[in-house]
Amino acid sequence: MTVTSSGLQPSHHRAVLTAIDRQQPYQRTRPFATWTVLALLSVVAAVVTRRPDVLALGAPFLVAAVAGLVLGRKPELAVGVLLGSGRVIEGETVEIIVELDSADGVPRVEIELETNEGFSPESATRVISVVEPGITNRVALQLRAAQWGIATVDHVRVRAVDRMGAFGRTLDYTTDVAVHVGMADERVEAPMEADRFRRIVGSHLSPDRGQGVEIADIRPWQPGDAHKDINWRITNRRGEPWITQRHPDRSTNLVVIVDAHEGDDELQQSTQRKSVAAALAIARAHLARHDRVGLMIVGHTVDWLAPQLGRNHLFAMADALVTVSNAPDASLRLYRPVAVNTIASDTIVVAISPLFDPRMASLLAELRSRGNPVSVLVPAVGRGTSQTRVTRRVNDEARRLAAVEHLAVRQLLIDRGVAMMDWPDGTSVSQIVASLQRLRRSMQRSRTA
Amino acid sequence: MNQRLVSWTLGRVPGAAVVVAAIACAAPFGLAFLLAFGAAANAAGAVFGVFCFAVVVFVLGVIVAWVPAIAVALALYGVAAIEATSALGGAAQAMFMIATGAVLFVSFALADLSFSLRRSPSVSGAAWRVALVLPGLIVVAAAAVMAGVVAVATLSVWPAIVLPAALLVAGMAIKFGTDLARKHAVAA
Asked: Cβ of A55 and B127 within 8 Å?
């Protein structure tokens, strides 16, 4: 629980503490008031009953009150908070160190941390300790990153009580401790297949003919063909030069759109979690194949990360997706996002949205109308509930109307060629992405047929 | 090492707050039983009734962590104890009162400690030591003070005047001495 100076790691960084209002001065504690009252009562009782021995009943209380007044000190106390790590994965432990310093020493200090739901205590979040004079006392508290999102330590409350317990004060601080809690990796084996490609070498198999590994076809040699493409086995058999044609390996662009609808409700939090898990998994799979991946989070505000390559970009996307968990309750969506104009027409668009908001459907319809291959994963919201985001006060008629609107939105997108896949509870990200792949392939086949 | 051992051992006790609160409630109840049936010469039933009522108020005060209720319960204990020992006389009466005062104070201190132990805090060994030793020291000091009072009360007239005055002078000297020492310490 208590750590020494040598226990501090270089990675520990100091949090900013802000005192709430004015810090209250030392005040008499409740026990002190009780001691005084009971001591006085015993004196009165002794006088009334004319029995001096009754004084003995209140003697300890009298001694405690007098000792509290005479021996009580009001020591100053400096408080600091150090954070072990600012980024962790769900389930990992974060160390918060509360640093206490007093020149005179404090005989009893009660420390309490108040956190949001992102943390669950690994050990106690209340500590009672002692601060020796002139020695910095560092108290380590272990908190488990319970759920994905931003886990915060909202308050640090320190109560200092003097030697006799007669006077005490409470120091209440807000902190800027915020830990980004990421999700554990969820791998997607097969990324989205592209319709069109960048002229950059990648891992996607283009249907075009060019330099690659995969054999596409064979044909007779023509002037201009490279000698290294000659297929010697066929040439010997046919008596004339034939060449092998190959599919080139190309990379593509992909943009993931995440609908950060309000998340104060438990079911919606579960939907958000699925959305973010899918977005990260798809982005990771494509970045691993040298595709450029962009991210658009549409919610209270619009976060846009333009398509880029590399591992750092994946981390940037993970950071941006963590903020989805703290989306404000009020819906002030900003449609139409200006960044939509920068999405090239050959970019694969994968949206993860419950499609409750018609404006999200309009956004996807616009992208599809510009020629982008658009796929939508629709996470299920709750079990046995109508898939409408309506308040409890709205009557059943309104619920039915909202359900009809929802169906109409879905049908509009399907008619425009958007691949739409419902995501039931209990289905993993890799399973649902594989299902979406199959759906897109069948749609491509039906278009070419 | 000993402190760590004590802290580790007490930390393993399930619900230290519950254990401390139970001791705080049980001590005055035992005392009430002793006084009502051991020391009370008359009206044992009525005295025991007041004790029981005080126990109920005390337990409720501990459960809801409301100090005024505990103070009321202690006052009721005091009233019942006065009545229970009324038939006794001399040193026995004083001894019973000193013991009752000590038990009530320790119970109050433990009840107050149980409030701090709620929500399962981690308590360092030094904090346990301060919390448990301090009430004991106060009880001993109070017993010494009462012994002094009783001694003075049993003296003849002249020493009975001189001794309290001497104690007062000694007390004042200690007070001024500590104040002076504190001032020097601040100036340094």
From this structure: no
With beta carbons less than 8 A apart as the criterion, state whether A130 and A2 touch.
no
pLDDT digits (tens, 9 = 90+) for A151-175: 888 888 899 988 888 888 888 888 8
User: What is residue B87's predicted lDDT score, i.e. its pLDDT?
Assistant: 72
pLDDT attached to residue A38: 92
Does residue A6 surpass a pLDDT of 50? no
3-state DSSP of chain B: CHHHHHHHHHHHCCCHHHHHHHHHHHHHHHHHHHHHHHHCCCCHHHHHHHHHHHHHHHHHHHHHCCHHHHHHHHHHHHHHHHHHCCCCCHHHHHHHHHHHHHHHHHHHHHHHHHHHCCCCCEECHHHHHHHHHHHHHHHHHHHHHHHHHHHHHHCCHHHHHHHHHHHHHHHHHHHHHHHHHHHHHHHC
Per-residue model confidence as pLDDT tens digits over B117-144:
887 788 888 888 888 888 899 999 988 8
In a mutagenesis test of the B interface, which of A2, A53, A66, A112 is the best target, namely the one with the most B β-carbons within 10 Å?
A53
Residues A70-95 have pLDDT tens digits of: 887 777 888 888 887 788 888 888 88
Q: In this model, does residue A389 exceed pLDDT 60?
A: no
Distance CA B74, CA A57 (A): 10
Does the distance separating the beta carbons of B145 and A130 come in below 8 Å?
no
A394 or A72: whose pLDDT is higher?
A: A72
The average confidence (pLDDT) of chain A is: 80
- How much is the pTM? 0.67
Is A2 in contact with B134 (Cβ distance < 8 A)? no
**Are B121 and A110 in contact (CB < 8 Å)?**
yes
Contact A331, A262 (CB under 8 A): yes
CB atoms within 10 A of CB A274: 21
- Bond before A336 cis per omega within 30 degrees: yes
Interface of A with B in 48-77 (CB under 8 A): 49, 51-64, 67, 70
Query: pLDDT tens across A432-444, in order?
Result: 888 888 888 788 7
Give the SS3 label for residue A369: helix
CB B171 within 8 A of CB B145: no
Q: Which of A49, A58, A67 sits opposite B101 (nearest CB)?
A: A58
A126/B81 Cβ within 8 A: no
pLDDT value at B5 more than 70: no
CA dist., res. A182 & res. A185, Å (int): 9
CA distance A124 to chain B (A): 5
Cross-chain residue pair B67–A42, CB shorter than 8 Å: no
ipTM score of the complex?
Answer: 0.76
Ramachandran quadrant class, B124 (left: phi over 0; alpha: psi -120 to 50; beta: rest): beta
Dihedral pair phi/psi, residue A395, rounded to 5°: -80, 175
